[in-house]
């Protein structure tokens, strides 16, 4: 039912999404990971909706707005962003009729249902490569199996921070169609709790400017590397980490 989106992506396109109820306790670093991957040649489409319960966490749209961008981009804005810089955000209610009606029902029900997983699989701009977040282990196989049946070329399910598409730096977990990806573990590295849109935007600026070189930057680099691997720009994720770190240092 989604209205088609059209744009000339400058690089191989990867659709990225985590739980639509956002990130509450930690900074949301998905925008930072997307920008870093784009700096390395990938094109990234993020998508989210309005704030959802029961978590009512920060979404990528909240972070983009705190950075000075559109909080609820319309279709044309999403198209222009992708063509202009290789990164875009699709605000799902703007292109998928009926989404807000379903979101209202979900808020009333209060518990997770099938749509919490299915919305992560939206293939905006005709994407056939995906990075999707999950929280509970059984969902990784179900998400990847669904993507295969939907015709995905490549995909990775990541056990992200609060179900997001941003990996934990201390013990990153990502799985593709072949099995677990080899990602370097850095025990002791963890993203400290500091939630909110403004804190997320501030940390995004710090990481992308090279001012933050700790766990936050590590989480962004590993997450960007996963996007580069799914995009087919690196043969193994560790090569993507090196490219991401070089981009952040430049």
Structure summarized in a few sentences:
This protein has 250 residues and is α/β, with parallel strands linked by helices. It is built from ten helices and seven strands.
Q: What structural class do you assign from the helix and strand content?
A: alpha/beta
Total of helices: 10
The mean pLDDT is 93
Overall spatial form: globular
State the helical fraction.
40-55%
Unreliable stretches covering 5 or more consecutive residues: none
List how many beta strands DSSP finds.
7
Strand sequence of the main sheet, in spatial order? Answer: 3-2-1-4-5-6-7
Strand content: 5-15%
Multimeric status of the protein: single chain
Q: What is the element string, with H for helices and E for strands?
A: EHEHHEHHHEHEEEHHH
What is the alpha-carbon Rg in Å?
16 Å
Determine the N-to-C terminus distance.
42 Å
Largest sheet report: 7 strands, mixed
Written overview of the protein:
The structure is a single chain. About 40% of the residues lie in helices and about 10% in strands. The protein is built from ten helices and seven strands. It has a seven-stranded mixed β-sheet, sandwiched between helices. Strand 6 (about 175) and strand 7 form a beta hairpin. About 50% of the residues are buried.
